[in-house]
Amino acid sequence: MTLHIVNKSPHATNALASCLRVIQPGESLLFIEDGVYAALATAEAGAAIVAAPDRVQFYALQTDVAARGLVNRLNVAVNVIDYAGFVELTETHQPIQSWY
Amino acid sequence: MSTPNKSFLLVSRSGPYGSAQAREALDIALAGAAFNQTIDILFMDDGVLQLLPDQDPTGINQKNLAKTLPMLKLYDVANIYAEQHSLAVRGLLGETLVLDCKVIDSGAAGRLIAAADMVLGG
Fold it and tell me: Are the C-beta atoms of residues B45 and A13 closer than 8 Å to each other?
């Protein structure tokens, strides 16, 4: 099962849009660096998450979330994970596709 | 110097930590202001994300940009603008931001750019 990693703001590049166009049911999507802005609880970002295929799991890296002041602003569908969780995702998924 | 000051407008369009652009834009503003230049700032696109409170970049080993932004006031950078559309699409309209900004619509942002002697993009 593929792990997708997005590290760019959804407003700055089409990395997230491209990822969401091809992501398959049940796969995982991890937001890191400026990618975490996609996890904001806004109408626009929420619509992208709702429109994703079934059972796609969303994750955001805690340090990047905290750095950007988003701790209390995230979409509830997004699981916040630490570096250990990041490592675990890389262990349990194969292949890993980075979108940047 | 006898030449009259030009008016500068800095357009800051990047988020605080994904690249050095936001930090460098702020450095330009502070340096310019230190030399008594008139510098206005317009935050738009991901630039408005610099204004979010509660930033804590210790975990990514970066300096807290939101802590430096208020220095603009100390340096007499009086005209700080944020584009309404950029705030709205990021869910930040009406939020308390780290800087007191004049929220302006896109037309006003365009006129601000048109009225400046010199525009520094980013």
Answer: no
In whole angstroms, what separates CA B28 from the centre of its chain?
A: 10
CA distance A95 to chain B (A): 25
Contact list in A for residue B58 (CB cut-off 8 A) is 67
pLDDT tens sequence across B41-95? 999 999 999 999 999 999 999 999 999 999 999 999 989 999 999 999 999 999 9
Nearest-Cα residue of chain B relative to residue A66: B56
**A100 chain-B contacts, CB cut-off 8 A:** none
**Token duo for residue B28:** 């330009």
What gap in Å lies between CA A52 and CA B10, rounded to an integer?
Answer: 38
pLDDT, tens digit (0-9, with 9 covering 90-100), for B92-105:
999 999 999 999 99
Rounded to whole angstroms, the Cα distance separating A97 from A27 reads: 11
